[in-house]
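Sat 14:20. Reprocessing the chain from the morning session after the first attempt stalled halfway. Input below, unchanged.
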Amino acid sequence: MKGVTLRDFIYAFWAVFWRSAIILIVNALILHGAAQLMHLLFLQTDTSIKIRLSLSHLPAAVFFTLLALRHSASGTLTTQNLSPAWRHVYLALAGACALIIIAKMGAAFSFPTETWIMTGMLLPPFLFLVLWLALAIYLMRSRQKPGTTM
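Finished this time. Tokens:
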């Protein structure tokens, strides 16, 4: 690609990172509140804890999907220009959250508890890092095409 610099990549990476970091922080706050509420209201069994923790990325998946739908409709929720590239970015992030949920649910009831815990600890950071890098490259390439904006 002609004219693409490290600065362009860092800009694209940062654009994806800070948007997803805000959603993941809100997700963590929701989960903390839900855990406190569940602890007060319900008996905590092994199965209920596994289900609750396996669904830990569900709020983030919903938020990313809503951002993709809202962004494709008007673009007023966020400051970036209307672009199908950003809708694809939000849908990819929602898909990553769904993949994490599926992997954690599968591990919760198929493998020993230690394997399930390791899946929950190691998969999300690795998956998001790889996805952020790939999405930064995708945004750079979509920016190079005429008619798209970042």
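The chain is about 80% helix and 0% strand.
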